[in-house]
Amino acid sequence: MEIDQWWPRLDALTQQWLIAHNGELVPADILSQITASGGVVSSEAWWVGESDPSGLSLSDRAVDWIEATANGESPTGEQPT
């Protein structure tokens, strides 16, 4: 499921955290909210960045998407070509 599909399913607190901490590692509790909302964490998902034992990062494109959403702009949600 793409970011534009699971984003509206997140509760307001999770969306606010992602906006306020955009570009930071996503902690396990926030990641569990994303997966509960339909976000599948896989290397094929364009919104997934790198992962290590301390957490998961969102891709640069996902960071841009969240920033655009926070600014009231129309993010495309499209996959990179």
Structural features:
81 residues; alpha+beta; two-stranded antiparallel sheet
Brief summary:
The chain has helices at residues 3-6, 12-20, 28-36, 60-70, and strands at 48-52, 55-58. With 81 residues, it is of the alpha+beta class.
In terms of topology, how is this protein built?
Elements: H1 3-6, H2 12-20, H3 28-36, E1 48-52, E2 55-58, H4 60-70
Antiparallel strand pairs: 1-2
Overall description:
With 81 residues, this protein is an alpha+beta fold. It has one domain. Helices cover 41% and strands 11% of the residues. It is built from four helices and two strands; from the N terminus they run αααββα. It has helices at 3-6, 12-20, 28-36, 60-70, and strands at 48-52, 55-58. It has a two-stranded antiparallel ribbon. A hairpin with a 2-residue loop joins strand 1 (48-52) and strand 2. The two termini are 17 Å apart. The relative contact order is 0.20. The mean pLDDT is 89.
Number of helices: 4
> How would a textbook summarize the main sheet?
2 strands, antiparallel
Domain module count: 1
> Which H/E pattern describes the elements?
HHHEEH
Structure class = alpha+beta
DSSP, total strands: 2
Q: In percent terms, what proportion of residues is strand?
A: 5-15%
- Overall outline: globular
Radius of gyration: 11 Å
In helices, the fraction of residues equals 40-55%
**Distance, first to last CA:** 17 Å
Mean pLDDT: 89
Oligomer category: single chain
- Name the strands of the widest sheet in spatial order: 1-2
Spans with pLDDT under 50 lasting ≥5 residues?
none
